[in-house]
Amino acid sequence: MTDPLPTGATIGILGGGQLGRMLSVAAARLGFKTHIYEPGANPPAADVAHACTTAAYDDAAALTAFAQSVNVITYEFENIPTAALDILEALKPIHPNREALRISQDRLTEKDFLTGLGLQTAPYADIPDADALTAALGTIGTPAILKTRRFGYDGKGQARLMSDADAPQAITDMAGAPALLEGFVDFSIEVSVIAARSASGDVACYDPGENIHRDGILHTTTVPARLSASLRTDAVLLAARILNALDYVGVMGVELFVTPSGLIVNEVAPRVHNSGHWTQNGCAVDQFEQHIRAVAGWPLGDGQRHSDVVMENLIGDDMDRVPDLAATRDTALHLYGKADVKPGRKMGHVNRIVR
Amino acid sequence: MTDPLPTGATIGILGGGQLGRMLSVAAARLGFKTHIYEPGANPPAADVAHACTTAAYDDAAALTAFAQSVNVITYEFENIPTAALDILEALKPIHPNREALRISQDRLTEKDFLTGLGLQTAPYADIPDADALTAALGTIGTPAILKTRRFGYDGKGQARLMSDADAPQAITDMAGAPALLEGFVDFSIEVSVIAARSASGDVACYDPGENIHRDGILHTTTVPARLSASLRTDAVLLAARILNALDYVGVMGVELFVTPSGLIVNEVAPRVHNSGHWTQNGCAVDQFEQHIRAVAGWPLGDGQRHSDVVMENLIGDDMDRVPDLAATRDTALHLYGKADVKPGRKMGHVNRIVR
Asked: So what's the ipTM on this one?
């Protein structure tokens, strides 16, 4: 294990969206500088970063200069091209590690990894072609969801099958991309565990939050989740098992379905997670600082919940509600400074403290 | 009253120290960009700001360009030269207003203002020269403190008089600057009220904190302060009276002595205040965001205390304690990213949550 990064050092962050923005603020709180790497111009994170490189992920010179300017590298999203990682990793440490990225970049690899750990997932099958889908529907049945193995988020790259007749359209929707069929899981609620593991192997989990989605995008996370004490313990132990198996350093979001047969892992994200935004107003040390602490080789901070919170995403026209929300008691606003309001675009979130 | 500043607008901040840095983070949280104006190179605030101008306060061209690039102007310190304010104010609104700056830039004007409002202060006298000091010592007595009327902070520009014999040295210490003699106040504790007033005239105060100084620099602030309910109410009403009298917009720090004859105003600062740093971990909306909300014409936020907090400043070599503090429960670190550790320099602070 390496020495803790001294305050004043620079943390490189791949991705300049809202997660990179909030990571950058957390890093500053510990006295670190940040350098953002982002292909898009004027990213939200640049407003609160020491430096920002605007360059593509296949720009070897820019990647090299970026890596040389920082002490350690982390990221706000998991779909970083392998070739970029090869360049960066040769120059500076990257946390969370390559194995965590490899697992989470491919839904099939991820499911195989999770079931290999003895954890429950939805029934699934590899779907390289239409024939495989026909065969898989025979065992998994409908309703089911066909998902691209790679590069999906917020419900994108997914096709729902209510009957076998939907199979041709679903295959067309995948546009030739390798896919995975997931069977239907009859769950009561979805919860997520935001788990952190330090470089020295300590694990700390925030209280599980209960998630509600709308149109495939997270709508609210409520803490505490309606979980029995034993399921809460199961959730936390399960998350710790995943982190340990990956020798993981950083924060991970673990989405779980609560079913009559126990917890089923929906998916894992090797980064800070939208369902952990409540920690900003519920804990002394939020998920962003916890991630920075881990990446910097620092001890984990105090993630004990001091307040119950309902986090709600502000999406697209929800921004029209900001004046009212700003005047509402027990309400903490977090806006991302994005110039253009677009339907489905995450513009901010609000944490309501429940007293 | 003007319309609320829309998210995405730019707030100009005069001064790039730790207060400007934390104001900048708070502004970003509401989706604002910030532009820092600071004579010193690489100021702490620049790490978390959209833009930073490095120029002197007598650089008219730089001041003009700065003002033209922002929507509204605020500041982290009160000693802004009048000529600079003249240039800036002709171009963009400045909050808090000129009157608040005029009052707080001069200890004599401030005392006259406070006593004019019917508030109690320490006994004081204008000391233009040595003869005036001799006369004032006759009425005020010793111990007493001779202070420069302008540009003092953290105990600088002050001379303590234990007897009349200290007068010549004290006059020498002032180096010809206009000064003020303050009589000794026999107080049990010092508290401060962090008060905010919005553009529409709403006033909100945080719970008073109890301050302990070391070597003339704030050491700790503990919330709640040991105040009776009636004194707590007095403190808040008194702060509100000051804000209303000034038609003030923003956050003000009001330092009070608790004495047998009630509350005595020590001094006011027309800005966010070191004794309000506890709000970062004690409230949903901290003093920095409250200030930004006021300056931007937004409604004030929720400053209710959810946790008891002890704030401790990290000064100079206190930075050696950071590794231990980082591993301590119920502890939130806030470091300023200053490159050089110097004796007496504020390097960060720590908020301990008391459960």
From this structure: 0.93
